[in-house]
Amino acid sequence: MTTVLRFLFSAIGLLVACAFVPGLGHGSFLDLLIVAVILAALNTTVGSLLKVIAFVPVACSFGCFSLVINGLVFWLAGALSSRLGLGFTVSGFWAGFFGALVSSIIASVLGAIFIPKDRQRPQGPSPRIKVVN
Fold first, then answer.
1. Which residues sit opposite 89 in a β-bridge?
2. Which of 64, 106, 107, 131 sees the fewest Cβ atoms within 10 Å?
3. E strand or H helix that includes residue 89
C-alpha cells in the first residue's frame, strides 16, 4: 500500500509541477501515474548509473550535481513518455530541472504527511550481542 501511495504522490507532484513550471505539459491523471512509474524505473537504472559515473562532480558539489542528474532523467522521462503516446511533455533541460525539483518536493512533503513512520524499530540504543566462547 505504501508503494501505491508513493506513486500517487509522485503523480500529484507531477501535476503541481506542470501547473507551475513553464515548459511542462500533461495529459490525464492516468498518464501522470504511468509517468511516475517510468520516472521510478529511470531513476533506479539510468539515474543510479549516472550518479556512479559522475561521482566526482557529485562529491565536489556536496551532492548538488545530483539535481542536474535528476533534471536530465526527468527530461528523458518526458521524451520517453511522449514517444509512448502519453500526454506528458518536457520542453528542455531547465523545464526538466525545475520540474524534477518541484515534483520531488511535493511528493516528499505528501509522503511525510500521509505515510506513517515505521514504529516497529526500537527507540533506544541497539541491543548488544554477547559472544559466548
1. 25
2. 131
3. strand 89-90
What confidence tens digit (pLDDT) does each residue in 66-121 have? 999 999 999 999 999 989 988 889 999 999 999 999 999 999 999 999 888 775 45
Question: Which residues are CB-contacts of 13 (< 8 A; sequence separation ≥ 6)?
Answer: 102, 103, 104, 105, 106, 107, 110
* Number of Cβ within a 10 Å radius of residue 36: 23
DSSP state of 22: T
3-class DSSP assignment, residue 126: coil
Beta bridge partners of 24: 90
- Asked if 21 and 100 touch (Cβ cutoff 8 Å), the reply is no
- Report d(CA 51, CA 99) in Å as an integer: 19
Q: What is the pLDDT of residues 6-62, one digit of tens each?
A: 989 999 999 999 999 999 998 888 988 999 999 999 999 998 899 899 999 989 999
